[in-house]
Amino acid sequence: MSDYILETKNLVKEFRGFVAVNNVSLQVERGSIHALIGPNGAGKTTCFNLLTKFLAPTSGKIYFAGKEITREKPAQIARRGIIRSFQISAVFPQLTVLENVRIGLQRATGMSYHFWRSHKVLDRLNDSARALLGQVDLADFADERTVNLPYGRKRALEIATTLAMEPELMLLDEPTQGMGHEDVSRVTQLIKKVSAGRTILMVEHNMNVVSQIADKITVLARGSVLAEGPYQEVSRNAAVMEAYMGT
Ligand code: ADP
């Protein structure tokens, strides 16, 4: 079995001649937390979109657990266990927190809604949903309407609905964006906790978060990999400092 759960080889994405991702070769180690950082416009989102097949690469290859997946469709990618965190907009604000996770579970199993009429099935789904909420410290919010959740808790719910899909590789898109200090540290610890037994690739701007939990960092600038390594190394890299100062 490959040590790398995810690998890209010379990934390129051009938009009408503009090179947004330029020869990016990533190696994400199984079981690690890997951060993708870089100034605005570096190509981080485009990379994520290539990995989930939201976009097709212009050239280059993508491998998951040693198997080439470059030409697979988004649904196939998800079935393999590559799950991108659902954005807040993907949860139903008027439903309760528990109901939203239950829908995530229903999606994950492909179970049709009429099964829910069975009390046994519903009880089982509720138990699983409560267990997931416990994992993200949202058990006390289970019966709250989602619209009433504080922002930081909504992001935790997003992680719970992603966990419902049983990800092997979780892609988190700026999980602490727009949060106050307390929520940032709670979500940072949460990511560390849910990383047990799975791999996380995250785009993250907050260097404090990255320094605390990332095993490896890839720095992108203008579409290319500028530096790679643990935080201690990357943070001392002169080219990285310049790229950040220059924005
Ligand atoms: P980041 O997430 O690091 O801020 P992006 O991946 O969003 O960067 O964007 C990288 C570059 O590609 C930017 O210059 C952006 O304007 C450009 N870009 C992204 N998507 C498109 C698109 N669909 N069409 C044209 N240019 C795009």
TrEMBL record:
Pfam families: ABC_tran, BCA_ABC_TP_C. Keywords: ATP-binding, Cell membrane, Membrane, Nucleotide-binding, Transport. Signal peptide: none annotated. The keyword Cell membrane applies. SUPFAM superfamilies: P-loop containing nucleoside triphosphate hydrolases. It comes from Parapusillimonas granuli. PROSITE patterns: ABC_TRANSPORTER_2. The keyword Transport applies. One of its GO terms (molecular function) is ATP binding. Residues 6-247 form the ABC transporter domain. GO terms for cellular component: plasma membrane. InterPro entries: AAA+_ATPase (IPR003593), ABC_AA/LPS_Transport (IPR051120), ABC_transporter-like_ATP-bd (IPR003439), BCA_ABC_TP_C (IPR032823), P-loop_NTPase (IPR027417). CDD domains: ABC_Mj1267_LivG_branched (cd03219). This is ABC transporter ATP-binding protein.
